[in-house]
Amino acid sequence: MKRIEDILSQCIDDIKAGNTSLEDCLGRYPAVRRELEPLLRIALNIQEPPDIRPSAAFKIRARVSLMEHIRASQAMKEARRPIFQIGIRQAWYSGWLKAATIIITVVLAISGVGTGTAYASQGSLPGDVLYPVKLGTEQVQRRLTADDVSRVNLELGFTDTRLKEMEEVVEKNPEEIPVAVTGYEKNLNLAIAMAEQTKNEGVQANLQERIALVISSQLSMLDELEDGVPDEVEEAISNAKDVAISGHIKALQGLAKKNPVKAAEINMKTMQGRLNRAEVESERGNVREMERTLQHFQRLRRFGEEISEDTRRRGYDTRAIDELNARATAGQMQILGAIYGNAPEGTKGAVEEAMGASVEGHEQAVKGLRQQGSLDDIPEEPLLPDEIPDDIKDKILNHEPDRPINGSGEPGNGSGEPGNGPGDSGNGKH
Amino acid sequence: MQGEKNTNTSSDIDLLVERAIDGDANAFGRLYDMHVDRVYRHVYYRVGNVADAEDLTQQVFIKAWQAIHRYKKTASPFLAWLIKISHNLVIDFYRSNKAKTYIDFDMVASELGSSPEHLAEMHFDQQQIRRAILELPRGKQQVVLMRFIEGFSYPEIASSLGKSEGAVRVILHRALARLRKILEKVKQ
Fold first, then answer.
1. Model confidence pLDDT, tens digit, residues B75-132
2. Are A59 and B36 inside 8 Å of each other by CB?
3. Counting Cβ atoms within 10 Å, is residue A374 exposed (0-12), middle (13-18) or buried (19+)?
4. Interface with B, mutate which of A3, A8, A15, A70 (most B CBs under 10 A)
5. Which among A252, A369, B168, B187 is most buried, taking Cβ atoms within 10 Å?
6. What is the value of ipTM here, to two decimals?
């Protein structure tokens, strides 16, 4: 016997194509008629919307803007490509003398190894014989790069290289992933340190913003990479994400000193990305990854509070930051409610902790806004999702989690640094 | 192919997609020209105002360019991939704008026992239906929109979402059952 969903689809298609009528279709399936009829009526009532079109002015404006974006991103990508990936021919275009200098220096740096070897090493992976040569050529490039902006860009380019290595090594030599993760951490630390050394404050802020945005997009790449790897390799990729979160926070700490609102906005977007990821993982039943991602969310949420606290301490207006933090709570609770519904028993504590962090952040933001007389329509107490039982709601709102907040596997320190080590997700709460 | 309602053949589009993956900005510009109307219409249906629809449509194509190297040709058309990006962006848009939240689980939680006869008497105007569709959970919403609003076939939807055709039919059945409850509640 046909299943109801197949009958329903068939009837909708046949009626819409004019091959049969509603009554005929219902007559063919008397056993399910009672269920089928209302569903068919609704389906047949759904009409395609009228042919709404965007204005010609918008289409032109959006096209111009899209093309500008593409050209700018291509130019940026080109600027970030390591010189040996660009190739010697292009190097000649930018000046044969410079190219020759680079080649000679590389030869000297790797003493006795030919340029052909240096070039060939660019495709090598951790564990390969030529991999140390590849790292050696990167070192030479560092020495040849003079200004701060180019140095930061160079290191960020190297972080991308490490991510590509992780991707490739997963299939060929998975036990070497930690080598790429350690390299990623080192490159990230160098990029952050170089940005900090930059004397011009405006340039420094731009670099720190750029680092944070690059890391944010790298987190998405690591999510995708993690989705495709076997279980035994997942841990190593998770470690890389811990490193990325720490780096992200570190870069934004620098930016927050100059432009706290921008830092808070970027942090909020990354936080939203982590929450969305946790929801997807809860839907998939991947409990471990859901928990780890919720820990990242908590770290970022607490870091959002830190930005506000530090800004207030320095005597600046924090209304925009507090409002951003407070207004985000409702949306976060909605997603956390969905995650709570998906999470199996025994893992719901992690979701409750994340809600606790969100509640704490909300309360702090409300306090700040109240002091500055800007509470407006923001609710003083966050509304917890309906999925949460009342006794748990009380615990969360009264800050009485079942599990100690600083317990094992706990979210890291909001100010954790990339230097924490790839295996260290950072423990402790502020 | 039901999904591509324009005069361009799928092989033209495939060729442009390949060139765009190789970094050809002009090819991506052509893909924009071919698909901007459909993407805009989809987004407008979801957000209901010109300003947000324009903003989100622009973001869809920027996201698509950033992700084009990850695009893999499947049984579903390129438009389905763009619609999937649109869907995710609209979800994010509503999440970051709490005043515009459209998912109201309270409204659909209560079990109602109306008879089919009662349903038959009901008249659903398109605004009510649109609002009800937007209250569906996102997975169900996506399937309803792709099937009834965008006109994609079951194999195309299945391929785009990485599910079997059977699974898509099951989701559609459940989505219609949920729509029924929402609409009954509205009529009460």
1. 778 999 999 899 888 888 887 764 444 433 222 222 233 344 444 444 457 778 888 8
2. yes
3. middle
4. A70
5. A252
6. 0.78
